[in-house]
Amino acid sequence: MISLDLQQWVNRTEVQFDDATLAPAAMLAATLGRQDNFETGSVLPPLWHWLYFLPKAPHNEIGRDGHPRRGGFLPPVTLPRRMWAGSRLQWNGELRIGDTLRRTSTIESVETKYGRTGELVFVCVRHEVARTGGAVVLTEWQDIVYREASKSSNLAERPRGTVTVPAAAPREWQQSWEPDPVLLFRFSALTFNSHRIHYDRSYATQEEGYPGLVVHGPLLAMLMMQLATEKSPGHSVSSFHFRGLSPVVDSSGSFDVCGAPGGDGTKAEMFVQAAGIRSTEGQVSFHHLAQR
């Protein structure tokens, strides 16, 4: 049962404003090895809105894990481990570099569950992104999960939900990535993500029980989206959903971003594979640019 204190956060709303400036997009392109020549007015690639509306908690309000301390807009869940479990997104138009944006965030639900690893709290936040004074262009439902501290001495133990990749999994597209510390550091910096599991190896392994530095879930989602859009010219993205199944860590070596188009070309099934394990999966839906 949801505690009364946490339930009181449901329907809480926060409004933020930001400018989709050029520099973060240019730096992310460099981080991912892209050759984009962005300028004011360029279309922002799908998911790159994550470069904006970044958390700005003062240093004295940062918790031990590197996240801002609990409370404020998000509910004050006391469980120590917090992860971005996945998102569902819908586009009604394009965001462009130079746009002034408004994001309205609403807590849709707070739910407590109990699993193999103990107590879990799931928080769903709906973000609606619009150009200032305009209609909503992008709606995202973000799923955040809070977990108990690791109780296992086996740092390589696979969490619940891990599945091996079926032999018949479609993978017409495949691209390998090396999760070196520089890539992880640069992505953390660009998204102002100070969660220590991504750059502090001793904290990641000794405090949270991971076998190495953890690759950001949003980075994996961006790489799936990037591959899907590169392989689908003449189409624009209408929706995307993804979920994390198992963490990708740098100690496992390179990982593969894989996918295949749907039968009618309007969808793409995507997944990330690391050390023989499917770690993240998602689906991109498209419509032809002539339909816009």
Which secondary structure elements does this structure contain, and how are they paired or packed?
Layout lengths: L3 H4 L5 E7 L2 H10 L49 E11 L8 E16 L2 E14 L4 E12 L15 E2 L8 E5 L3 H10 L10 H7 L9 H14 L4 E10 L10 E7 L5 E8 L2 E12 L4
Antiparallel strand pairs: 1-3, 2-5, 2-8, 3-4, 4-5, 6-11, 7-9, 8-11, 9-10, 10-11
Structure commentary:
The chain is an alpha+beta fold and 292 residues long. The chain has one domain: Roll (Thiol Ester Dehydrase, Chain A), CATH 3.10.129.10. It has five helices and eleven strands; from the N terminus they run αβαββββββαααββββ. It has helices at 4-7, 22-31, 181-190, 201-207, 217-230; strands at 13-19, 81-91, 100-115, 118-131, 136-147, 163-164, 173-177, 235-244, 255-261, 267-274, 277-288. β9 (255-261) and β10 form a beta hairpin. α2 packs antiparallel against α3.
Poorly predicted runs: 153-163
Question: Total domains, how many?
Answer: 1
Strand content: 35-45%
What share of residues is helical?
A: 10-25%
Please name the CATH architecture: Roll
The average pLDDT value, as a whole number, equals: 88
The helix/strand series, from N terminus to C terminus, equals HEHEEEEEEHHHEEEE
Query: Given this structure, which CATH class is correct?
Result: Alpha Beta
Structural class label? alpha+beta
